[in-house]
Specification:
The chain is an alpha/beta fold and 252 residues long. It has a single domain (2-248), classed as P-loop containing nucleotide triphosphate hydrolases (Rossmann fold). The chain is 38% helix and 25% strand. It is built from 8 helices and 9 strands. It has helices at 44-51, 90-100, 106-116, 133-145, 163-180, 191-197, 215-219, 226-248; strands spanning 2-13, 16-28, 33-38, 59-64, 73-76, 151-155, 183-187, 200-205, 208-214. The chain has a 6-stranded mixed sheet, with helices on both faces. Strands 2-1-4 form a 3-stranded antiparallel sheet, with helices on one face. Strand 6, helix 5 (163-180) and strand 7 form a beta-alpha-beta unit. The chain is globular and about 50 Å long. Bound molecules: adenosine-5'-triphosphate (ATP) and magnesium ion. Residues 44-45, 155 line the site of magnesium ion.
Amino acid sequence: MIDIERACIRFKTKTGHVDAVRDVSLRVEEGEVFGLVGESGSGKSTLLRALAGLTPLAGGSIRIGSRPVRRDVQMVFQDPYGALHPRFTVDKTLREPLAINGIGDEDARILDALGEVGLGPAFRFRYPHQLSGGQRQRVSIARALIVEPRVLLLDEPTSALDVSVQAEILNLLRRLHRERKLTMILVSHNLAVIGFLCQRVAVMRNGEIVEQLDVDAVRSRDVAHEYTRRLLLATEGYTRDSATRLEREPGT
Ligand SMILES: Nc1ncnc2c1ncn2[C@@H]1O[C@H](COP(=O)(O)OP(=O)(O)OP(=O)(O)O)[C@@H](O)[C@H]1O
Ligand SMILES: [Mg+2]
């Protein structure tokens, strides 16, 4: 579904340039949930933005599906506050991508999308400031899903949220993945989150992928790279806490 071949992304700066992504190759199968981890500044968001067509490549190639249609790839960002237009109602936020993509039957689709993310019709004419953080992130997810993409890119979709709200959103994402057979790439600092949703994970460092693992290997700490081991240790305390919370959530 996703085929990245030796992708390079370079940003020009005042003093020179930053090679944010260096020679990254990655394949993600249709219907797979793929995790991306790595320390801050390692190039995770940059790679996702390139997949969404928001950042050009300096080298290499990215192929998505057989027919690359813009709306086939949608992205959900970390910050549910910044991601929504403050003066747009939920209705307008959801209507916009339909209009851009020339999709009709708007009212029915808006109500469907709201229902799918667990928001009733009462939320339709609210503004972002009238929503909780978790509700805003549900609106962001609805906005991504409303154009029926085949690939969903999630950049730290729950890290700005309270832990119990995090679990709700993760359960929602897992249900959507099951029901829609979506292909997903998920960036997270939290290995419990990765373990909950993903089948495989790549570890990034300094713009490169240093290791790719099955999620079982992450759980059993069966990693080859010292860097990955340190990353695991660094998140361990937090991981244990949120893993327990996820298990306590009723299954979806
Ligand atoms: N527009 C830009 N101009 C210049 N440099 C950039 C730009 N965007 C990102 N970078 C640089 O590229 C590198 C990778 O950034 P990126 O945002 O992809 O990291 P990240 O892995 O998502 O980090 P985090 O976990 O903190 O979100 C960093 O060194 C960053 O400073
Ligand atoms: Mg980032």
